[in-house]
Amino acid sequence: PQQHLDLPIFQEHEGRSSSSGSRDRRVQDLQGGRANFFRRAVHFQFNQLNLLLGSDTVIFNRGPRRSKLSLRLEDADAQVNQQTCLDYWLDNIFNNLSETAVCYHKEGRVHGYQLVRTEEIPKWSGFSFEPKAVMESASSILQFLQQNCTKEAGTYWLCRAEGSDELQLFCLDDADNKH
């Protein structure tokens, strides 16, 4: 049977700075115990699931006749790796952006820039990944979470040991409840 990939639907909610910070999206960093605020919250629909994602991607608006793009800063002497490419691609997909402007710098000075279209990022810089495989993996993980995160208003921790393919899900409301 032929597989197809559902196209996501996007809706962006900009966080506005205020003295109380009440409209900012807040996420607790479990490892460091500090609060982080996202610049915007993005509603992302994926395979009949509605997700609310926090995003700190810097977005440059080029006006009403041109599409928005993300802006990335890279060290001119460093090689862009596969993880960075995947990060850029996912951020562009989640934020519905058509391209990324990569600004190369060294010791605070700009040494050049490059515009990379979102669909070219998976094969950019000598590394490659298959977008369909990434989305299939994401779908599988989200289905697993939907089936196992069943406690109303529950708090869960999803982790994977380094070098392992096995995901572990813990319900933090009940430390003895391991899925």
TrEMBL record:
One of its GO terms (biological process) is positive regulation of DNA-templated transcription. Residues 11-26 have a biased composition (Basic and acidic residues). Residues 1-26 are annotated as: Disordered. InterPro entries: EDRF1_N. Residues 28-172 form the EDRF1 N-terminal domain. PANTHER family: ERYTHROID DIFFERENTIATION-RELATED FACTOR 1 (PTHR15000:SF1). This is EDRF1 N-terminal domain-containing protein. It comes from Guillardia theta. The lineage of its organism: Eukaryota, Cryptophyceae, Pyrenomonadales, Geminigeraceae, Guillardia.
